[in-house]
Amino acid sequence: MTKMSKKELILATKPRYLQASKKEKGKILDEFCENTGYDRNYAIQIFQARYDYGRVVREGRMARKKIYSADAMTAVTKVWETLDYPCGIRLQPNLLTTLESMIRFKEISVSETIMRQLKTISARTIDRRLSKEREIRKLDRHRGTTKRGTMLKSSIPIRITNWDTGKAGFMEMDTVAHNGGNPSGEFIYTLDMVDICFGWSEQYAVMGKGEIGVVNAVNVIRTGLPFNLIGLDSDSGGEFVNWHMVRYCEKEKLYFTRSRPDHKNDNAYVEQKNYTHIRRWLGYGRFDSPQQLIAINNLYRHELWLYNNFFLPVMKIKSKEKINNSICRKKYDQAKTPYHRLMASDQISNEQKQKLRNLYLTLNPVQLKKAINEKINKIQKLSPKTNIDNICLSKAEQT
C-alpha cells in the first residue's frame, strides 16, 4: 500500500472510528493495522480527534539537533571532493579508509573526537549535510556514435542470460567518442572495459575505432589485469562485431558475446562507467591529434586507473523486486572499492594480493587527483589536428 492510499484510508476511516463504540473501535483498528502494517498504538494515536495527520506535510518536521560538528563535516567534504563527489551510500563505507590514507600522507589533520564522530555518521546524514554543497557545485546535471556491425551477427551469440556476477574475468566493453559533437573526420575513441564481479575498470584511447586498433587496445588492457580474463561482452557496433575480434577471442580462448541492438541496459555495467570514469574527466570536447592520444593514454595507464580502482567505491545489486508492475525495488550491497572487493575474494593468488596491497600503501588519493587534473588541463590545451581543408582554402584565397 502506498503512502497516498494509506492517507486516503485514514481520512475515510477516522470519522467512522470516532463515532463507533468501544467494541467496534477494536474491530476497526484490527482491520486498519492489518491493511497498513501500522502499530496499534500509533493507529490509536492518529485516530484521536485532536491529532493533525497533515501537520508534518504542512509545517515540516522539527529540526534535529546537529550531532556532527562543522569540523567533522569539513573532513567529510574534503574526502567527498577527493573521491569525486560520490553519494552518501558509496561514500560512507569508504570514508574512514580514505581519511586514513589522507592522514598517512599528511593531507589532512583530524582529531580523535572527529574520528569518533565519523565512525557513526550514516549515509543519509552525509547526503543531507552535503545537499547545499551539491547544489552550489551544480553536480546534478548526458551523447553516442555506435553503429551496428553488419558482419558475423550469427557467429557472435547474444547474451540473453546474466553472467555469474560472482566470478571474476567477465568484462563488458564499449567505446566513447571524443568528437565534440562533430562526427566528421578521424578522432579519438576511448575503449572502456569493466569487470562485472569486482567493478574493476580499465580504459585505453585509440585513434578512430578501426578493428585492429580496438583489438590491440583490448590486448593491452588484458595483459595488465590483476585477474585472468575469461569473457568479453560488447554492443553490436562494428568495432567489436568483426573477424579480427572473433579470431582474437578464439586464439586467446575467450568467450565473446554481444548485447541486443538498441538495448543499452544489456551493457549496464560499462554504460554507467562511460560517464563517471571518462566523460566526467575529459568532457565532451573533440580530441583528434596524435599528441592528445599519447597524453590521454598516459593519463589512463598511470593515475586514472589507480584512482578509479583503488579509491572510488562501487555498489553491486543483490536483488530486484517488482511492485505494482511499475516500481522496481532494488537492493544493493555495501559500497566498496574494486581493490577492497579483490582483496576480500579468493579468486586471485596471495602473491597478487600482496602486490596490490603494497601498491595501495604508496598511493595518496589527494596527489592522484591533483595529477589527474593537471594532465587533463594539459590535454585540453593541446591544439587539435590541423584541418587540411581549411589550409587548402586559405591558400586558394591568398592566390
Q: Report Rg.
A: 27 Å
In CATH, what is the class of the largest domain? Alpha Beta
User: What is the annotated CATH architecture of the largest domain?
Assistant: 2-Layer Sandwich
Can you say what the CATH homologous superfamily of the largest domain is? Ribonuclease H-like superfamily/Ribonuclease H
**Which consecutive residue ranges, at least 5 long each, have pLDDT under 50?**
386-399
Instruction: Kindly report the average pLDDT value.
Output: 86
Q: How many runs of DSSP E, i.e. beta strands?
A: 7
Task: Describe the structure concisely.
49% of the residues lie in helices and 11% in strands. The protein is an alpha/beta fold.
Compile the SSE list and pairings.
Blueprint: H1 3-19, H2 22-36, H3 40-46, H4 55-59, H5 70-82, H6 88-91, H7 95-104, H8 112-118, H9 123-129, H10 131-136, E1 170-178, E2 188-195, E3 201-207, H11 211-223, E4 231-234, H12 243-252, E5 255-258, H13 268-282, H14 290-310, E6 317-323, E7 327-332, H15 338-344, H16 350-361, H17 365-381, H18 388-398
Parallel strand pairs: 1-4, 4-5
Antiparallel strand pairs: 1-2, 2-3, 6-7
State the main characteristics.
alpha/beta, Nucleotidyltransferase, domain 5, two-stranded antiparallel sheet, 399 residues, 11% strand, 7 strands, disordered C terminus, five-stranded mixed sheet
Q: What does this protein look like?
A:
The protein contains 18 helices and seven strands. The protein has 399 residues and is α/β, with parallel strands linked by helices. The strands form two sheets. It has a five-stranded mixed beta sheet, sandwiched between helices. Strand 6 and strand 7 form a beta hairpin. Helix 11 runs parallel beside helix 12. The longest helix is centred in the last third of the chain and has 21 residues. The C terminus is likely disordered.
